[in-house]
Each structure stands twice: as structure tokens, then as C-alpha cells.
What we know:
4 helices, 6 strands
Amino acid sequence: MSAKIFPTAQDAQNAFYEALERSDLEAMMAVWSEDEDIVCVHPAGQRLAGQAQVREAWRQMFAGGPGMRVKVAQRVAVNGMMLAVHSVHEHITVTGEQHARPSIVATNVYLRTPAGWRMVVHHASPAPAEPAADATPAAPPGPKTLH
Amino acid sequence: MSAKIFPTAQDAQNAFYEALERSDLEAMMAVWSEDEDIVCVHPAGQRLAGQAQVREAWRQMFAGGPGMRVKVAQRVAVNGMMLAVHSVHEHITVTGEQHARPSIVATNVYLRTPAGWRMVVHHASPAPAEPAADATPAAPPGPKTLH
């Protein structure tokens, strides 16, 4: 289906967050394994399993066009020969909003396929504010617009 | 540290949910990899990383003693030689409560270590009720008590 080859799990992850920022459905689905055993959990959302459910949710999410910046931080990684797991915090800034959204914790799992590394699991959930965040001023807003 | 050997990821997962039901801290920590690269996210909780944080959260959770039953369902699994990922729904019933709690979606990642399969990631978050659940009567309560 797709000609994209990601030589490492990190390459697949970079492409995932680029597709998310660009609201690019085809680029997003090119990051995912073509297998039916894929799982996606959006923050506070139901578990989506298989190509059709995962694609439809991204299609709906991207319908409004691009409008967010995602800063990925505090990665914890466990790497195998065939599978890699990255735990990250996502700091999302939406165009037109003054402050960053509450951060998201995500577990991203990548599988080494004949077509390079692909995502098989994205599990994201809201992360409560950390104590340090309450004691310091809010971070300055990110760049206002992408386009 | 521990003499427990889990020959498969599923064995480690079974031990995980048994320890959870028994509120058994030592049995729980025997399921986890002894590495510092472990990650645990409880529903609506912050990401916990490393032995000390993960252990302390279970210690607090287990302080009241056992009192829940966990039914694990709808597993999606991706298995590698060294890593295995299980996506499950957890249906939790708390002793003394009439109805099951809202279900939890969990991503469990297991690593094949020299000491057998161990957990390296547990990411749990509340799953909204599925449409079908609204249309049918609530499930009957589970067994009232364990002890």
C-alpha cells in the first residue's frame, strides 16, 4: 500500500507526530502497520482496533485541518529486535489558544515489519498536572500559528 | 531478587492480575522487570517511572487490603521474541459495590528477561461506556466477597 520505509522506531514516531501536526490522514496511516492487530486509544476515548476503526477516528480528528503543535518529551524506551515501546509526554498547543493543553501520556509501540518499523499501538491518556507545574508560572504559549 | 519465573507473557499477565486481586505487593513487584526502564500509568494518574515510583503507588493502592475482582477481556496481542504487547479491557468489581466499575482499557508490555517474562509497561485509562452497554441491563454483580 505505502512506499514509506522507516528504518527505526524513532523514524516512525517522528512521522507519526508530523502527520498529527499536519492533520495528514494518508501520512498518518502510512505510519501504522497494515495488520489488523493495531490498537489506538485517544485521550478519554474507547479502544479502537483494526484498520477501519483507527483510520476513521483519525479522519474525524483531522477533518478540521491542521492546528496543533506537539512537543514530545521525557521518553522512556524499551527496544527489542522486532518491537519497540516508547513512553512519552505530549505537550499540545492548539492554534489560537493562549496556553498549552494539559499534557498527555502516551505509550507508543512499534513493530519491525518487512516494510520497516510501523506503529501497532498508540495509547494516550490525560496526565494530571505534576506538582512542580502548580508552583511555577505557566509556560509561555508556543508559536501562534502554523500557516 | 525474585525466584518467580514466567515462561510466557501470558503467565506474567495472569500473575499481575492475581497480585492485583490479592493486593499482594511482593507478588506484584515480582511480575515487573527489575530494570529501571519500567512505566506504570494508573487510570487518570501521572506516569510513574522506575522501581521506586511504581512500587510506592502499588503499596498505597494495596494498603487497604484485597477487595476487587478483575475480569480481563477482549485481548489484542502482538508478540515478538523479546517483547509482547497485550491490549485488554479490565472489568473491575469492588467488594460491597452492586455494579461493576466503568471498564478500563490497559496496554501491558512484557519483556523476555533472563528471569523469564516480566512486565515493563502497564498503561491503564478509563474507557467510556460502549453504546451497546447503554442498551442492555447492567451485568449482574459478581461474587460479593473474596474472603
